[in-house]
C-alpha cells in the first residue's frame, strides 16, 4: 500500500510540474509509458490506468497500447482494457495474441486472430508467430495448418521467425513429416536457431537419432554450436544411452568455452546419470566452482532416482555445510525415492529436516511428504501435512485422495474430491483414477459411477483404459461378472486391452466362475498378450490343473522371457490360497513359503477373511484350513 501511494504521488508530481509547452498528450503519454515499465503488479498498473481515465487518456492509442503491454501477465485485466477500447490497432491485437499464447487459456487467441482478420488488417509476422504458439500449446492441428496456408499466401514464410514457429508447432503436434518437409524446403543457409528448432522437433517426436544426426551435420558444416543445441544433443544422447557420445560432447563443451554455463553442466550431469555413469556426473559436479541450488538439486535428484539414498542424504548435508539453502525440489526428489523404496527411516529423517529448517509447506514439498507418509503407512501424518499446507495444487489433492484410497478409506477419498471441487480446484484424469480406484477397493458402485459421469460430462475428460479398468475391477469384486464382461465388450477396440480382461479373470478367480474364466483366458490367448499369472489364476478357478500351469510358468522363467526376479515373491503375487485348494500332488517347500504361510495365518488371526473358500467346493468347516495351509497340497 505504501508503495502504491508513492507511485500515485510520482505520477501526479510529474504531471503538475510539466512545462506548459510540453504539457501535451504526447509528453504525458511518454511519461506514463516510462512509469509503466517500472510496474510489476496489477495493482500498480491499475493506479496508472485510473489516472489515465481521470485525465482523459483512456482513448489515446499510444497510452493504451503501453498499458495493455504492461498487463499481459493478467489476461483478464488485459482483456478488459482491450475490449473497452473502441478502435484497437494492430499492435493491440498482437499484444492480446501474445498474452493468450503464454496464458492458461491459449485457445482464446484463436478468437482474437479471427477478429483481427475480420477487421482487414494487414497481418505481420508477430500475428502469425504468437498464434502458432497458441496452436502448439493447444495441439490445434486444423488451426495450425490453416495458419500455415495464410503464411504461404501472404509471403511471411520469408521471415525466419515465422518458419521457426511453424517448425515448433509441427514438432509439438507430432507432425514430424510436415516439419521435415518444411525444413528441407528452406534455403541451404538455415541458421543455427532454425536447426535448433528442428532438433527440438525431432526430440518431441521421440527421434533422438535424427536430432543427433542434424547436430553432427551442422558441426561438420561449420555452423557452430550454442547453448540450446548442446542441451538438445545432450538430451538426445541421454535417450540413446550413448555414454561415449556424451563424453565427446563434454569435450566439445570445454573446447567452445561453455565450461561455466550451469545449464549445460546440469544437462551433462543428467546425461551421465541416464547413461549409467553417475560417478562421472559427480566428478563434474565436484569440479564446478560455482554451484547454485539448481545444480545441487540436479545431483541429489540423480542419486535419488538411482536409488542411492544414502549418497543423496550425504549430499544434502554437504549442501547445508556450504551454506546453500535447499528448497522444495531438493527434498521432493529424496522423499519420492523414500516412498518408492519404502525407506521409512530416511523418510522420517527428511520430515524432521523440514521441521528443523522451518521450510514452507508449499505444493511441491507438501505433496512429496503426503505421498511418502501415505505409502509408508502413516496416513495420520499425511493428513496432518495436508491440513498444514500453505498452498495446494491439483497434485496435492490427488496425493491425499490416493492416500485415503490406499488405506481403505474410500468414503474419505470421495468426500475429499468433492471438497476439492468446492474450493475451486479442477480434478484431472489422475485425480479421477485415484477416486475410482478407492471406490473399487471399497465396493462403492454408486459413487464410482457418479465420479465417472462427472469426469466425462462435467469436465470433458476422455476416460482411459485405466479408468475403465477400475470400473471393471469394482464390478468383478462385487460378483457382477456378466456386467463387467458386457462393459469390456462395449469398449472401443483401442481400449479393450489385456488389462481389462485380466481384471475380469481375477474376479472369476474370486467367485469361482470356471466357464467365464476359461473364456477370458481364450481371449487373452487370441490377443497374443498372455502372462504366466493368467495360467496361475485359471488353475485356481479350475482345480487339478495346478501342475500343468506351474510347469508352463517355470518354462517361461527358464526362457528368460518373464520376470526373473520372481524368486522373491510378494504375498499377493504368490496367492497362497491357490496352493491350498489344489487337488494335485505338486507343492513347493521353501523357507519363503513357510514364512509367507505364517504371515497369512497372522492376517487371518487379525480378523481378515479369506476368499479361498470361493475357489473350490469343500465343506464349510474345511475352508479356513484349506485357505491357510502351508503343508503339502490337500
Describe the structure.
- 70% of the residues lie in helices and 0% in strands.
- With 634 residues, the protein is mostly helical.
- It has a domain at 572-628.
- It is globular and about 85 Å long.
- The N and C termini lie far apart (81 Å).
- The relative contact order is 0.02.
Fraction in helix: over 70%
Shape: globular
- Based on CA atoms alone, the radius of gyration comes out at 31 Å
The end-to-end distance, rounded to whole angstroms, is 81 Å
Total helices: the number is: 37
Low-confidence stretches: 1-5, 18-23, 544-554, 560-590, 611-634
Global structural class: mainly alpha
Strand content: under 5%
Mean pLDDT: 80
What is the compact description of this entry?
Belongs to the PPR family. PCMP-E subfamily. With 634 residues, the chain is mostly helical. The chain contains 37 helices and no strands.
SSE topology sketch:
Blueprint: H1 2-16, H2 25-36, H3 42-54, H4 61-70, H5 75-83, H6 90-101, H7 108-118, H8 125-138, H9 141-154, H10 160-172, H11 176-185, H12 192-204, H13 208-220, H14 227-240, H15 243-255, H16 262-274, H17 278-287, H18 293-305, H19 309-321, H20 328-341, H21 344-356, H22 363-375, H23 379-388, H24 394-406, H25 410-422, H26 429-442, H27 445-458, H28 465-477, H29 481-490, H30 498-511, H31 514-526, H32 532-541, H33 546-558, H34 571-574, H35 576-581, H36 591-605, H37 620-628
Helix pairs in contact: 1-3, 2-4, 4-6, 5-6, 6-7, 6-8, 8-9, 8-10, 9-10, 10-11, 10-12, 11-12, 12-13, 12-14, 13-14, 14-15, 14-16, 15-16, 16-17, 16-18, 17-18, 18-19, 18-20, 19-20, 20-21, 20-22, 22-23, 22-24, 23-24, 24-25, 24-26, 25-26, 26-27, 26-28, 27-28, 28-29, 28-30, 29-30, 30-31, 30-32, ...
GO molecular function: RNA binding
Keywords: Repeat
GO biological process, one term: RNA modification
Amino acid at each position: 500500500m505504501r508503495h502504491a501511494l508513492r507511485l500515485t504521488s510520482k505520477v501526479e508530481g510529474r504531471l503538475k510540474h510539466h512545462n506548459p509547452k510540453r504539457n501535451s498528450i504526447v509528453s504525458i503519454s511518454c511519461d506514463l509509458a516510462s512509469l509503466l515499465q517500472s510496474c510489476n503488479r496489477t495493482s500498480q498498473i491499475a493506479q496508472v490506468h485510473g489516472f489515465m481515465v481521470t485525465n482523459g487518456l483512456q482513448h489515446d492509442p499510444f497510452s493504451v497500447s503501453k498499458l495493455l503491454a504492461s498487463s499481459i501477465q493478467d489476461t483478464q485485466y488485459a482483456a478488459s482494457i482491450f475490449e473497452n477500447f473502441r478502435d484497437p490497432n494492430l499492435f493491440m491485437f498482437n499484444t492480446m495474441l501474445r498474452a493468450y499464447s503464454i496464458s492458461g487459456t491459449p485457445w482464446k487467441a484463436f478468437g482474437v486472430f479471427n477478429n483481427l482478420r475480420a477487421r482487414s488488417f494487414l497481418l505481420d509476422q508477430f500475428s502469425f508467430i504468437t498464434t502458432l504458439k497458441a496452436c502448439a500449446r493447444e495441439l490445434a492441428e486444423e488451426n495450425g495448418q490453416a495458419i500455415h496456408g495464410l503464411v504461404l499466401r501472404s509471403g511471411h514464410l520469408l521471415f525466419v521467425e515465422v518458419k521457426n514457429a511453424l517448425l515448433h508447432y509441427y514438432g509439438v503436434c507430432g507432425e514430424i513429416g510436415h516439419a521435415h518437409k518444411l525444413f528441407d524446403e528452406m534455403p541451404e543457409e538455415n541458421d543455427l536457431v532454425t536447426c535448433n528448432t528442428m532438433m527440438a522437433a525431432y526430440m518431441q517426436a521421440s527421434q533422438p537419432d535424427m536430432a543427433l544426426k542434424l547436430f553432427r551435420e551442422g558441426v561438420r558444416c561449420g555452423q557452430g554450436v550454442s547453448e540450446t543445441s548442446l542441451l538438445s544433443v545432450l538430451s538426445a544422447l541421454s535417450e540413446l544411452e550413448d555414454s561415449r557420445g556424451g563424453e565427446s560432447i563434454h569435450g566439445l563443451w570445454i573446447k567452445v568455452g561453455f565450461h561455466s554455463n550451469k545449464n549445460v553442466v546440469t544437462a551433462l550431469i543428467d546425461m551421465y546419470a541416464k547413461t549409467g555413469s553417475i560417478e562421472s556426473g559427480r566428478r563434474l559436479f565436484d569440479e564446478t566452482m560455482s554451484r547454485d541450488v539448481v545444480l545441487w538439486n540436479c545431483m541429489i535428484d540423480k542419486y535419488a532416482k538411482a536409488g542411492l539414498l544414502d549418497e543423496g542424504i550425504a549430499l544434502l548435508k554437504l549442501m547445508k555445510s556450504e551454506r546453500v539453502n535447499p528448497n522444495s525440489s531438493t527434498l521432493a526428489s529424496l522423499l519420492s525415492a523414500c516412498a518408492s523404496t519404502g525407506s521409512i527411516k530416511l523418510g522420517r529423517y527428511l520430515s524432521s529436516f523440514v521441521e528443523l529448517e522451518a521450510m514452507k509447506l508449499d505444493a511441491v514439498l507438501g505433496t512429496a511428504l503426503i505421498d511418502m507418509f501415505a505409502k509408508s503407512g502413516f496416513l495420520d501424518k499425511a493428513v496432518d501435512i495436508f491440513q498444514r499446507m500453505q498452498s495446494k495444487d491439483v497434485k496435492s489433492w490427488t496425493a491425499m485422495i490416493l492416500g485415503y484410497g490406499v488405506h481403505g478409506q474410500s468414503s474419505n477419498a470421495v468426500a475429499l474430491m468433492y471438497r476439492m471441487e468446492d474450493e475451486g480446484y479442477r480434478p484431472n484424469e489422475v485425480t479421477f483414477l485415484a477416486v475410482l480406484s478407492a471406490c473399487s477397493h471399497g465396493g462403492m458402485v454408486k459413487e464410482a459411477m457418479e465420479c465417472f459421469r462427472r469426469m466425462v460430462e462435467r469436465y470433458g475428460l476422455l476416460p482411459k483404459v485405466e479408468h475403465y479398468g477400475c470400473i471393471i475391477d469394482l464390478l468383478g469384486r462385487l460378483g457382477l461378472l456378466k456386467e463387467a464382461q458386457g462393459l469390456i465388450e462395449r469398449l472401443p477396440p483401442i481400449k479393450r486391452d489385456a488389462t481389462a480382461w485380466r481384471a475380469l479373470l481375477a474376479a472369476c478367480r474370486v467367485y469361482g466362475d470356471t466357464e467365464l474364466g476359461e473364456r477370458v483366458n481364450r481371449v487373452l490367448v487370441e490377443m497374443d498378450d498372455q502372462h504366466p499369472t493368467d495360467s496361475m489364476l485359471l488353475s485356481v478357478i479350475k482345480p487339478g490343473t495346478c501342475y500343468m500351469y506351474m510347469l508352463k510358468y517355470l518354462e517361461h522363467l527358464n526362457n528368460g522371457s518373464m520376470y526373473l526376479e520372481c524368486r522373491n515373491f510378494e504375498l499377493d503375487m504368490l496367492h497362497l490360497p491357490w496352493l491350498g485348494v489344489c487337488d494335485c500332488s505338486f507343492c513347493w517347500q521353501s523357507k519363503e513359503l513357510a514364512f509367507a504361510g505364517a504371515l497369512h495365518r497372522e492376517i487371518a488371526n487379525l480378523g481378515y477373511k479369506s476368499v479361498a473358500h470361493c475357489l473350490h467346493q469343500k465343506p464349510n468347516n474345511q475352508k479356513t484350513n484349506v485357505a491357510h495351509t502351508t503343508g503339502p497340497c490337500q
